[in-house]
Write a structure and sequence with these properties.
The chain is α+β, with helices and mostly antiparallel strands. It has helices at residues 9-29, 31-43, 53-63, 65-68, 80-96, 99-118, 120-124, 127-132, 144-161, 189-206, 210-241, 251-272, 290-322, 460-472, 494-505, 507-518, and strands at residues 167-169, 172-175, 178-181, 343-344, 361-368, 373-381, 405-417, 420-431, 443-452, 455-457, 479-487.
């Protein structure tokens, strides 16, 4: 055991007082971002575990208090530069109304405030507890589409391997005993995030080597994925052989959590066999001199001023950019679309409409050139915020709660728009009822893309980037989601009708959007 000389108590008292003030300032300035995180924890079962993350972080730091006491707190002022970068990232996220960016930037600022005040050498001793705070950020739902695809594919594979005939359409499949669908609750994202959180904590507490920790974290990612596939397969099999009397409705979610709990417990029991004893963390630290203490006090004051200036700057810029007058809602003139032989139809071809939430202006019309029909939907967004924004996981062709329509396939397609080749998203929709309003069509083909202040894209990330840049440059945030759709059972098929409309009258869509943007 090495002899140690603990740092002077007053040095840590000043450092901790400064850190407390710094964190209070940060939380005060960014309280709306923090409250948005807490509201997600409260309403989403996927992120309910995040309520435990801050207390666990504090407990892990408290366990390191004796080791920290042997270090000299010395502010690392150079960290103000990456802190400024995080502030800019938060500003971009706020401009584009992206919760994941603002909340991640806020959490990283909380983490970076610690080494800024107490210094990198001291903060390195509590690197994991600080990093564990990242599990409080409610992020991960972007994995939903891919996880749902994997779950559907694994379930169908298991059913066919068991000799049960399956007809599959995307996330929907039919077996002799009934119809099943993979919805968001079946994706396994809840199991994955929960397993990764507790698995990472388990690895830190039970292993010393980085290799063993990384291996166990990898297992904590793989196990819930495979377990969810097995769970989904077992639920369908239970429903099939019970005549859909068990493992349906809420039951299958309860069975899923019980099964997941058993799997995770087995994973931990096995992982304990390779646990390693704690290392001796004693170290020798030279006592601080009076001059060192005085210098540290000066650096703490400088760190406080730099921190306050850096974290306040994004709010000042945001206030300048958003202090303008409220603009009127745009007017979208459907008559502009009646061109080159296409005319507005008296009745809509279908009762379906894209599930776009709270647009500033909206238009959904049907056009015909005789035998062929095409629908045009435009959802226009202006002065966007977290309640009204174009690029959102809530804005989809068909919502998960829609009882009448289902999206059975999705992909991308290259089309000709205003004489240029453009990649757009393509989706095939099927009606869950046998008749549609005024017609007998049961399948639609839809092409859709984003229009961001004149830029066309299908990428959520590019769209958010254009939106943030446009607002920062003072050009506003006028954006629109454009959806063209047509019934499959018409002369030449749906895609031929859609492309013909774009070839002959596609410029009318650009005219409507340009006219709406000029309305101030």
């Amino acid at each position: 055991m090495n002899a140690v000389s603990p740092a002077p108590t007053f040095a840590w008292q000043r450092a901790l007082t400064t850190l407390t003030v710094v964190l209070l300032v940060l939380v005060g300035l960014y309280h709306e971002t923090g409250l948005a995180m807490v509201s997600i924890w409260a309403r989403s079962e996927t992120f309910a575990h995040a309520f435990l993350v801050p207390p666990i972080t504090l407990w892990l730091i408290w366990e390191k208090r004796h080791v920290l006491a042997r270090q000299q707190p010395r502010p690392s002022l150079w960290l103000a530069l990456p802190l400024a970068g995080l502030g800019f990232a938060w500003l971009l996220g706020e401009m584009a109304a992206v919760n994941a960016v603002t909340q991640l930037a806020f959490t990283c600022m909380l983490i970076l405030a610690v080494p800024l005040v107490i210094g990198v050498p001291a903060a390195r001793l509590i690197a994991f507890p600080l990093g564990f705070l990242l599990f409080a950020v409610p992020i991960g739902e972007f994995l939903l589409p891919k996880l749902m695809d994997w779950t559907a594919a694994a379930t169908v594979f298991g059913l066919r391997a068991s000799g049960i005939p399956v007809f599959q359409e995307g996330l929907h499949f039919v077996i002799p005993s009934g119809r099943w669908s993979v919805v968001e609750a079946c994706s396994g994202v809840r199991y994955l995030i929960a397993s990764l959180t507790v698995g990472t904590l388990f690895a830190y507490l039970n292993y010393r080597s980085t290799k063993r920790r990384l291996i166990f974290v990898g297992i904590a990612i793989l196990v819930p994925l495979v377990a969810n596939w097995i769970r989904a397969y077992m639920i369908v099999m239970l429903g099939h052989y019970s005549g859909n009397k068990i493992a349906v409705g809420v039951d299958h979610l309860i069975y899923g959590w019980v099964f997941f709990g058993i799997v995770i417990m087995i994973m931990f029991v096995i992982g304990m066999r390779w646990s390693e004893p704690s290392a001796d963390l004693d170290m020798t630290v030279a006592p601080a001199s009076a001059n060192t203490s005085a210098a540290t006090t000066g650096r703490l004051f400088a760190a406080s001023l730099m921190f306050a200036a850096v974290v306040a700057a994004p709010h000042a810029v945001l206030w300048v950019l958003t202090s303008g007058a409220t603009l009127p809602p745009p007017r979208l003139d459907p008559q502009t679309l009646a061109t080159s032989g296409w005319q507005l139809a008296a009745t809509p071809m279908s009762e379906w409409k894209p599930a776009f939430q709270n647009p500033s202006g909206e238009m959904n019309v049907t056009l015909t050139d005789g035998e062929r029909r095409v629908g045009v939907y435009i959802g226009y967004y202006r002065q966007q915020n977290y309640e009204r924004k174009l690029v959102s996981s809530s804005n989809v062709l068909v919502s998960g709660t829609d009882q009448h329509w289902a999206q059975v396939s999705q992909g991308f397609r290259t089309i000709t728009l205003d004489g240029q080749a453009v990649n757009v998203r393509s989706g095939r929709l099927r009606s869950n009822v046998m008749t549609l309003l005024g017609q007998g069509d049961t399948q639609l083909v839809a092409w859709h893309w984003y229009w961001i202040n004149g830029h066309v894209t299908t990428s959520d990330y590019v769209g958010k980037g254009w939106l943030a840049i446009s607002r920062l440059m003072g050009r506003g945030d006028d954006s629109a989601g454009v959806v063209l759709y047509a019934p499959e059972n018409q002369p030449g098929g749906a895609e031929a009708a859609l492309q013909d409309f774009l070839t002959r009258g596609g410029s009318s869509i650009a005219a409507i959007l340009a006219n709406a943007k000029q309305q101030r």
